[in-house]
Amino acid sequence: MSSWNKQIARLFTEHKKALEAFVARRTGNAQVAADLTQESFLRLARLPADKQIDNLPAFLFTIASNLVRDHQRQVIRRERLDAGEPSEAIASEAPGADEQLASQQEQALMQAAIQALPEATRHIFLLYHVDGCTYREIGERLGVTPRSVEYQLRRALLDCRAFIKARLAARGQRP
């Protein structure tokens, strides 16, 4: 087994349950969550082994987030088709080149924002968003109060938003 495959196998063992819980919370459907979680790992496994990824769990989380977003778009298209709005629903289900590029840019920007967080804040952010730990579980692990965890997560979100907003502004784009 190659080093890349070993990394993915380890990631699967360590994060599958938390990732599936994250996706289930966003979709409200356990079966869809299982499918999207599996697809997330498959997409990660299809990447070239030499691709430089600084934070595999965060990258996996981003893949899953994008798949949830794509799934939600498909649900809306199907609902429109059922409601008699075929022009929107007939459009290609596959994302176009522009959408793929935008998605890749969003992933890279989110990864950079997470990496820019202070180490302790980033650790709490990943425990919550990637591992699916509760405030209490994180607090017990790190020896802090759940209120402190809540504060750090709020701070992380504000910092990530500010980071992304600044990067987009520097590119002349609107957030």
TrEMBL record:
<dbReference type="InterPro" id="IPR039425">
    <property type="entry name" value="RNA_pol_sigma-70-like"/>
</dbReference>
<dbReference type="InterPro" id="IPR013325">
    <property type="entry name" value="RNA_pol_sigma_r2"/>
</dbReference>
<dbReference type="GO" id="GO:0006352">
    <property type="term" value="P:DNA-templated transcription initiation"/>
</dbReference>
<dbReference type="InterPro" id="IPR014284">
    <property type="entry name" value="RNA_pol_sigma-70_dom"/>
</dbReference>
<protein>
    <submittedName>
        <fullName>Putative RNA polymerase sigma-70 factor, ECF subfamily</fullName>
    </submittedName>
</protein>
<feature type="domain" description="RNA polymerase sigma factor 70 region 4 type 2">
    <location>
        <begin position="110"/>
        <end position="160"/>
    </location>
</feature>
<dbReference type="GO" id="GO:0003677">
    <property type="term" value="F:DNA binding"/>
</dbReference>
<keyword id="KW-0731">Sigma factor</keyword>
<dbReference type="InterPro" id="IPR036388">
    <property type="entry name" value="WH-like_DNA-bd_sf"/>
</dbReference>
<dbReference type="InterPro" id="IPR013249">
    <property type="entry name" value="RNA_pol_sigma70_r4_t2"/>
</dbReference>
<dbReference type="InterPro" id="IPR013324">
    <property type="entry name" value="RNA_pol_sigma_r3/r4-like"/>
</dbReference>
<keyword id="KW-0804">Transcription</keyword>
<dbReference type="Pfam" id="PF08281">
    <property type="entry name" value="Sigma70_r4_2"/>
</dbReference>
<keyword id="KW-0805">Transcription regulation</keyword>
<dbReference type="Pfam" id="PF04542">
    <property type="entry name" value="Sigma70_r2"/>
</dbReference>
<dbReference type="InterPro" id="IPR007627">
    <property type="entry name" value="RNA_pol_sigma70_r2"/>
</dbReference>
<comment type="similarity">
    <text>Belongs to the sigma-70 factor family. ECF subfamily.</text>
</comment>
<dbReference type="GO" id="GO:0016987">
    <property type="term" value="F:sigma factor activity"/>
</dbReference>
<feature type="domain" description="RNA polymerase sigma-70 region 2">
    <location>
        <begin position="11"/>
        <end position="74"/>
    </location>
</feature>
